[in-house]
Specification:
Strand content: 5-15%
Oligomer: single chain
Structural class: alpha/beta
Shape: globular
Number of helices: 11
Distance between the termini: 32 Å
Number of strands: 4
Radius of gyration: 17 Å
Strand order of the largest sheet: 1-2-3-4
Mean pLDDT: 77
Order of helices and strands: HHEHEHEHEHHHHHH
Low-confidence stretches: 132-141, 210-214
Length: 214
């Protein structure tokens, strides 16, 4: 869903080149987007945060309320750091640069369909650098000691934040995919969230991702 005709047409042409992905509808404004999504029930939505009539953030919140299972990928540029962060908090499944390659677009959609978070490293780096400890600590108290993430849980969550799939996290840590899912369940419980995207958003705000200066 994008209000720029050139971007709309570009995505349409890119998806036409795929053997397993299909564009079922598009829209140039928020109200039309919500109507089309309700009618066509797509598996993945590509959403621009700047839409006329209704902001992309408001659309995202509405989608999360009515269709929580729907994967929503935010189409973004490098000058939208604050919007990226707010979309992350609202439950976006991931982010995709508008100038991404054909293969990157295809892979992001396929990953999102399976419930994985999509986060290109360059986008995550900008989000993390945008957050400053003082502002965040004053609004987001630390977890109680009994609910702090273990080192392994932090490693799993860091992999999720970097866009790794469960299989990749398992291979990197030398554990099974089932164990990765168990760690994720513990993380969700401790952070009081229900998805990978919201877990990463909560962790960013609490400074729980290892190896990051937040």
């Amino acid at each position: 869903m994008d209000d720029h005709p050139i971007i709309q047409e570009g995505i349409r042409l890119m998806l036409a080149a795929s053997d397993d992905l299909a564009l079922v509808g598009d829209a140039a404004d928020g109200a039309t987007a919500l109507r089309i999504i309700e009618e066509l029930q797509p598996e993945v939505v590509l959403l621009d945060m700047r839409m006329p009539g209704m902001s992309g953030l408001d659309i995202l919140k509405c989608l999360r309320k009515h269709w929580p299972q729907l994967a929503v990928l935010i189409l973004t540029t490098f000058d939208e750091d604050e919007l990226i962060l707010r979309g992350f908090q609202a439950g976006a499944s991931g982010y995709l640069l508008k100038e991404s390659s054909l293969e990157t677009l295809f892979q992001a959609i396929r990953v999102a369909v399976h419930g994985e978070i999509v986060m290109q490293p360059e986008i995550m780096a900008r989000v993390l650098s945008y957050i400053r400890p003082p502002a965040f600590k004053s609004h987001s108290p630390s977890l109680p000691a009994s609910l702090e993430l273990t080192r392994r849980e932090q490693e799993v969550l860091a992999g999720v934040a970097n866009g790794e799939r469960s299989k990749e996290i398992a291979k990197r840590l030398g554990i099974t995919e089932r164990t990765v899912r168990a760690y994720l369940t513990n993380i969700y419980t401790k952070l009081e969230v229900d998805s990978r995207a919201s877990a990463v958003a909560a962790a960013i705000h609490r400074g729980l991702l290892p190896g990051k200066d937040v």
